Hints:
By secondary structure, this protein is of the alpha+beta class. It folds into 2 domains: 3-55 and 259-409, no CATH class; 62-255, no CATH class. It contains 14 helices and 10 strands. The protein has helices spanning 3-11, 19-58, 76-84, 118-124, 150-156, 196-199, 207-213, 233-243, 257-295, 297-305, 310-341, 343-354, 375-401, 405-409; strands at residues 64-67, 89-103, 108-116, 131-134, 145-149, 163-174, 177-191, 202-206, 222-227, 248-251. A 6-stranded mixed beta barrel has the order 2-3-8-5-7-6, surrounded by 4 helices. A hairpin with a 2-residue loop joins strand 6 (163-174) and strand 7. Helix 2 runs antiparallel to helix 9 (257-295).
Amino acid sequence: xxxxxxxxxxxxxxxxxxxxxxxxxxxxxxxxxxxxxxxxxxxxxxxxxxxxxxxxxxxxxxxxxxxxxxxxxxxxxxxxxxxxxxxxxxxxxxxxxxxxxxxxxxxxxxxxxxxxxxxxxxxxxxxxxxxxxxxxxxxxxxxxxxxxxxxxxxxxxxxxxxxxxxxxxxxxxxxxxxxxxxxxxxxxxxxxxxxxxxxxxxxxxxxxxxxxxxxxxxxxxxxxxxxxxxxxxxxxxxxxxxxxxxxxxxxxxxxxxxxxxxxxxxxxxxxxxxxxxxxxxxxxxxxxxxxxxxxxxxxxxxxxxxxxxxxxxxxxxxxxxxxxxxxxxxxxxxxxxxxxxxxxxxxxxxxxxxxxxxxxxxxxxxxxxxxxxxxxxxxxxxxxxxxxxxxxxxxxxxxxxxxxxxxxxxxx
Length: 412
């Protein structure tokens, strides 16, 4: 073992005359550990929120949509077959997307109407897993059944089996003027996907009923695709557009760009802000080493007179600062990963103990704190912590290497 490392490690142990310095070292180590723990937990929670939001949106949307320049596809079967030949495409389903107004005896609401084929829709979306009442298979051609979001059904005051009127904006020209197209539907089910935009503003009807109501003939609005990997949607979309040059591909990241971008920006800002906690902790490392250098003036002078070069003195104090940084980082990583993996258990326990809920379902889109630990985040936090701790050792160590032996030993 090189003597610089041996002496540096020895200085980290408490002695009777420098226990206060050792106490400050422990505080510095604890500060680094706390900062690393908090940063890992917050980034994991932000990852969890991002995944949860994406999962809920894609539960009603799709990974990729193909549509024509005028917003319609006339031979959707051939488009679905061509898309199905792509190795990354798992399933395809046609859809009709339109606007309408639902009217009941109690209220009226503007809604997004989606015409679907129930069997095909189950392969590209997750409505079946989120049905509160009824089932999506109850949508049958010419039966004019409708499935509503739970919040929408509640606002309209309807239950399965009730009748509601769907008014389409496309009108019928009569001698008396343009009369809106209106059709009575029977509520056959409700769903709750946990995404407010869908739960309060989406209605599902059979594809054939939508084609008749909106006078589309055999055309549809497009074809929805499910992929093996949703993050390859952009690449798959470009490849399919090369095979289908007369159509456009629209991937999931463009359906709600502001929401996804907001979560990503929040994660970056939280990373920057919470990194300051680690930076503040490293200032304690500076003060610890400055006090240690002052306390070890005589030892430094003796080492210099024995022939130790200034570089060796610098290495001795870098070792002590590095020990504080490494131990603090390791403790923080262990604590952060452990806490992040158990957030979904710890938070409910705290809510029970404190008697209130942190994320109320009436206010927030996601009422629970999800967590997803990502290796890249853990490594990034650990590297930043180690780099800041190392930088904090440079100035005090440099000052120690500049100690004049004669001045240091004058009053000894």
